[in-house]
Amino acid sequence: MKATPLQKNIMRRVYYAYAISIAVHSMLWRGVFLGAATVLLAKWLHVASIWHNFLSIPVGNVPHYIANSLLNAVAHGELLTLLTLTAAGMVGLSCVYQLVQSIHIERLFTHSLT
């Protein structure tokens, strides 16, 4: 079946609208930011060293250790690392919140239909 010019224009607009809806979706940009933050933090921090340090301290002292590590980072001028870590944590929490909200909404609709 041969598409008419009108059908081609309509479908082109549908594809543009779909591409724009994906490009402006908040979860896409959260994923892009988390990916960039992961790359930057992997470049700035050595994950094996952090894991080894966590395993070397008693479990009850972990919050104190994290607080001291963050204060030492500020004292040594590693503000960009700290800001990236904080922003990535906040975006990660918002992603988890959005996913939990979508699961609750999905369950609401599926339970109401049965």
What does this structure look like?
This protein has 114 residues and is mainly alpha-helical. The chain has a domain at 5-45 and 79-113. The protein is 85% helix and 0% strand. The protein has 5 helices and no strands. It has helices at 5-23, 26-44, 47-56, 62-75, 79-113. Helix 2 packs antiparallel against helix 5 (79-113). The protein starts with a helix and ends with a helix. The mean pLDDT is 85.
List keywords for this structure.
114 residues, mainly alpha, elongated
The proportion of residues in beta strands is: under 5%
Sequence stretches where pLDDT stays below 50 over 5 or more residues:
none
What is the number of strand segments?
Answer: 0
What is the string of helix and strand elements? HHHHH
**What would you call the structural class?**
mainly alpha
Q: In percent, how helical is the residue content?
A: over 70%
Q: Can you summarize this structure?
A:
This protein is an all-alpha fold and 114 residues long.
